[in-house]
């Protein structure tokens, strides 16, 4: 008995063209959540997704998330799609999350083809907005369910899904929905694990399971001086200039090698021992990979372990820009009256926005006091999110690891991501269960860029992976309940 | 015999309302040179000015300055207006410069009244775009000429004028015109001195003659790293970030007290001795004045001499902003791929853009090398202009000083401006004669701001001052030629 019956694999291969056609249809709906002009398309996409999942037997509820204000207009939020299939107490209940909205895209941004027409390239890439982020993965689940529906096969798990249409625009309304539905009697009541497919492989070769995300604290350093912008001819060397103060302050935050200079921040993190370094050594990743994706030879180290740990297990501080200063082309001789330096710190455990804030505050206040400027200074925290790391030995990960091995014939890289996927923590905290990040696409998919793509093989093998993953979850259930007496 | 006949003073007082009405007419023409939509209004203004000066007997030539590109359109440059009245070899020939174009202005910018309707306030302020910069002063000359014309009085000097319609937009085409007309046989051939009325008193109380301007060198520090903007989650602490390098570099340029940290730049300037400090001590200016105009208590010193010298006789370095970084509101977690820091140095003699550039270049190159970043770095000089200081004992200044005393009953403050008026240097170099800056308006006129105004008293007394100034020039001629035998 195999966890991945040939019948399922053949079904996916035989229906590949139909699956891609369905992905084309999804891509053709311009569900850009960040542009009010496309809001009706996001609604259309919510309906389309609902129809598709209903057609394979899933009970669907479209949830009104209320209104929000965007670009000065009050807009209805796209309806979230909740799905349910199976309620067998002897099966594990898996909750799948995805989103059906996309980033903005215009041909004039530099796309080689119409971003809303899925275009198959000779090299197997399926180019189109949302192909990889996140319509492909959502449709991967649909493909899997279709196998069970069309062949009247019982699903090996109880299936729950939560698809939203605001992920690219701050997931407005989602936290409340997840908290509400996680309560007893809610849609997510009884969920045993969560699987999110909304991230990427490290490279273009090796599948990945992701068990950690960095958190974020975003800060704004405000320096206020004159009542209005001044002319540098009239006031230069006459008054304290806010930009001079701000640049001094910003220069004390991080060094050019990425070391955070705010006392206590880097110090919260333990040094990796030899064993932990081996985990990073084992990943299929090279300095060439990072430099290829950055497009320049600018890696901070020639040691891949250092570079990977910098991204995955160390905090980072980036200076993003300055609000209020001159930013246009050309030469303007202004002394800006009020400037706000933006920077953020990516956090790793045990850091939280709460325990890092006092360190940042103490540092910038002390540095500003040293300057002796007569301008006014204030630190603002714009928003924050905790980091997340989970247990890779949990059966949720074991199932995915075994499934990956079965489909791709290689062990997945176990990675932590440098970025944040806030919904991960929302589910982990609301449900108190293990969350697995199981990416479908490759590291070069260009999720938020022009010419976003999903490789055909990733869509098709990725579908097989999802189907196999839930099957292994079934085995895990059996293993757990039957004390490993069934042969795998 | 008086240099300021009562008849002239009475004429100005008696015609004040008519003069203001004429200023209203000038203000109502929306001659915004920086906005292509208003270009026809600048042309209209060139015609209007020509008509007005012709009506008081001035021979006028409107000069086509060719075309230029603005906002992607090819546009005809507004015609400059050259005027000529009198050719008596026994008289001095004075060349007057002014401009009839204005800065943009919209009611929605925060104007209390329509910017193109000159509005007399109960406190005597005439509010309107261009009232002070520079239609008021140009019309001051017209008022003076009208006295001579209407009363058939011979003008005490030979009059030449040069009015342009592109001053607020880089004075395109003017340098070539001035150079061409300064040659033998040109419109400006034989000019003995220049008078420009396009700056302001130091405060609201005391008239000013200006004998110096700072020059300018504007620089751009370009740091290039990745091929495109990166996500700080994915790349934070993985690659050298251009913003980190740029902020470090910018922090080495100037300290919070205005001292320039680029070795050799401040050192080019001699220290003021006791005698020179007295010149600044004598000016009607206080720390309160600078802080009132800045709108905050942020003066670099409590010593007014230090503050005035910082503005007038010392170079200054201002950090203007960063191109390419995140500048909007909100929180964007971007690692900008290419950032350009903008800063400029205001220059004083003996500094020139040419002798300061190597110092700046050596400094930033050495500081960038110290960083050890793998990003690419480049210094660009965007534009530059020399400083200008002239001889305040020249008869051109003596005449203006005597005229000021006669009209305002007080000695003018002799000042150097912190900013630049490039046309000053153009005339000084092309003609090789003394240039006097003789402001009509006050320090709080808000030339480029909302609610620009000219005080009625400054317009009327300023007209008297211009008329008296040329009269004193006549006396100077007589003095020079007749060895002081005529009683003043």
From TrEMBL, chains A, B:
Example GO molecular function: metal ion binding
Keyword Ribosomal protein applies: no
CDD domains: M20_dipept_like_CNDP
InterPro entries the UniProt entry points to: Cyt/Met_Dipeptidase, Peptidase_M20, Peptidase_M20_dimer
Segments forming domain Peptidase M20 dimerisation: 211-369
Keyword Cell cycle among record annotations: no
Keyword terms, alphabetized: Carboxypeptidase, Hydrolase, Metal-binding, Protease
GO-annotated biological processes: proteolysis
Family from the record: Belongs to the peptidase M20A family.
The protein's name in its UniProt record: Glutamate carboxypeptidase
Organism placement in taxonomy: Eukaryota, Fungi, Dikarya, Basidiomycota, Agaricomycotina
């Amino acid at each position: 008995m195999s966890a991945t019956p040939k019948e399922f694999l053949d079904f996916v291969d035989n229906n590949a063209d139909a699956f891609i056609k369905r992905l084309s249809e999804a891509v053709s709906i311009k569900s850009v959540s960040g542009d009010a002009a496309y809001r009706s398309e996001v609604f259309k996409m919510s309906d389309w997704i609902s129809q598709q999942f209903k057609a394979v037997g899933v009970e669907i509820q479209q949830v009104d998330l209320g209104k929000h204000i965007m670009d000065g207009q009050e807009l209805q939020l796209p309806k979230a799609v909740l799905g349910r299939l199976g309620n067998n107490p002897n099966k594990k209940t898996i909750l799948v999350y995805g989103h059906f909205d996309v980033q903005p895209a215009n041909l004039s941004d530099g796309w080689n083809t119409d971003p809303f027409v899925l275009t198959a390239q000779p090299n197997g890439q399926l180019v189109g907005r949302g192909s990889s982020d996140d319509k492909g993965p959502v449709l991967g689940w649909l493909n899997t369910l279709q196998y069970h529906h069309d062949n009247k096969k019982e699903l090996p798990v109880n299936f729950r899904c939560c698809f939203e249409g605001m992920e690219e625009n701050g997931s407005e309304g989602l936290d409340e929905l997840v908290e509400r539905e996680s309560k007893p009697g809610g849609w997510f009541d009884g969920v045993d694990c969560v699987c999110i497919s909304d991230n990427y492989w490290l490279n273009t070769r090796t599948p990945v399971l992701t068990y950690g995300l960095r958190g974020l604290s975003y800060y704004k350093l405000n320096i206020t001086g004159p009542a209005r912008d001044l002319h540098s001819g009239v006031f230069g060397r006459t008054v304290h200039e806010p930009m001079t103060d701000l640049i001094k302050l910003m220069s004390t935050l991080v060094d050019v090698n990425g070391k955070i200079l705010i006392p206590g921040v880097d110090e919260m993190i333990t040094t990796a021992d030899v064993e932990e370094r081996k985990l990073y050594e084992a990943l299929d990743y090279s300095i060439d990979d990072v430099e290829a994706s950055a497009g320049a030879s600018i890696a901070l180290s020639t040691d891949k372990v250092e570079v990977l740990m910098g991204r995955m297990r160390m905090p980072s501080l980036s200076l993003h820009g300055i609000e209020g200063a001159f930013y246009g082309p050309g030469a303007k001789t202004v002394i800006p009256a009020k400037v706000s330096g933006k920077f953020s710190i990516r956090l790793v455990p045990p850091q939280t926005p709460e325990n890092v804030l006092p360190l940042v505050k103490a540092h910038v206040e002390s540095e500003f006091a040293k300057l002796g400027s007569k301008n006014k200074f204030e630190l603002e925290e714009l928003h924050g999110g905790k980091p997340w790391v989970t247990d890779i030995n949990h059966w949720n990960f074991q199932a995915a690891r075994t499934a990956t091995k079965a489909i791709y014939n290689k062990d997945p890289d176990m990675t932590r991501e440098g970025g944040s996927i806030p919904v991960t923590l929302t589910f982990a905290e609301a449900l108190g269960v293990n969350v697995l990040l199981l990416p479908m696409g490759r590291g070069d998919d260009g999720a938020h860029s022009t010419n976003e793509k999903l490789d055909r093989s990733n869509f098709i093998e990725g579908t097989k992976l999802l189907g196999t993953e839930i099957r292994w979850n079934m085995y895990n259930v059996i293993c757990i309940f039957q004390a490993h007496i069934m042969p795998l």
